[in-house]
Amino acid sequence: MSSSATSAPRALALRRRRNGAGELAISAAESVSFPELVWAHYLHVEEIHKNGDLHSPAEAEYREKLDRFVAENGRIVNAYWCTSEASGIALTEKPGTRVWGFLWRRHSNIRLHSATDWVTRRAPEIGHGLHTCETLAIRVTEVLSGTSERIAMQWILSVAAYLLGIVDQSDGKPAHAVEARTVKRARSELAQVETYYDRAGEKTGRLIYFWGMMLGLGVLAVIGSAVYALFWQLDVKAVDTEQFFICYTMGAVGALVSVMARMTAGGSFTIDYEVGRPALRRLGSFRPIIGAIFAIVLYFSLRGGLIQIHAGNGNPTAFFYGALAFAAGFSERRAKIITGGAARFLGEQEPDEDEPKKAPPHAPKGRRAAATGSAD
After folding, report:
1. What is the phi/psi pair of residue 79, to 5°?
2. What does 174-227 look like in DSSP terms, one character per residue?
3. pLDDT in tens, 294-346
4. What is the domain partition of the chain in residue ranges?
5. What is the pTM of this model?
6. Mean pLDDT over all residues of the chain?
7. Is 6 helix (H, G, I), strand (E, B) or coil?
8. How many CA atoms lie within 13 A of 376 on its CB side?
9. Sign (positive/negative) of CA torsion 24, 28, 29, 34?
């Protein structure tokens, strides 16, 4: 990490306004890294201790770098600055921009900044603990948002400040027993933070997946409206058209209800929330689309005679097709069971259910036993 300061301080220039929010665009030459800010703060504090001058040139340099750092990264919410060496950690918060410049505001960008290599060079275990804090903070920033993110990030900062305070108080070289005890307590605290992160991450992932499904429903609504408008222009008015759109809608609704039912307490819905928000949102948007496709395929199979399912009164109505379409969207497995007759009609061969499946010849016993088991 470089600790050299620029020969002459440069004024912060207003380059352009982004999204109408008045954010400052800072060039690479004007940007201030956190290690540079830490070093300027250390020189400022050292000057105060030496001469007692609160308005020294070092103080002016520090304030100038602080202004540029805050303009780029947001205000410093909390920080710990070492006095024995030029090291420190800080938590910054930058307000989120508005969507399209005038709609709702995005969540704030909260980041943990760390420059601790100088003070921990003779305390490797504490340095490793601080590195663990940094990696956990990265995961929290990428996954969580809102209140849960603030809680987790403040929690991580307090653990990192505790580690940094121990090594700072001992002038960078704590006793081996003190270092071991400190790292043990920090790891125990970080384990609690990670447990909280996992629980909050699971809930956040479900919310993102849900809004992805809402996006998918919106896409289906647009497509359905376009097709309906086309039928209206062509003057296609028939009972079949009404039944088609009922199945189209009920398949998507069935898929949505299926996921929401499994999201309830004790449900079987699990999701990998660390794949990222865009991926979760995209996966969620596919779910109602898949449900609608299964429902339409089932409707065509029924109308084409590939599947023989008879109504109780012998006269299938829109309610009959709508109920089957909902079941198809609610569970792909039920849809596959229903459409299995169509697959057999088209000549697709299926294995005999009475014949046990054979495991690979070199598979271990556990794997062979699993291969002969029946699926749920």
Report:
1. -160, 160
2. --HHHHHHHHHHHHHHHHHHHHHHHHHHHHHHHHHHHHHHHHHHHHHHHHHHHH
3. 999 888 888 877 777 777 666 778 888 889 899 888 886 555 555 555 455 44
4. 34-174, 206-372
5. 0.73
6. 80
7. coil
8. 0
9. positive
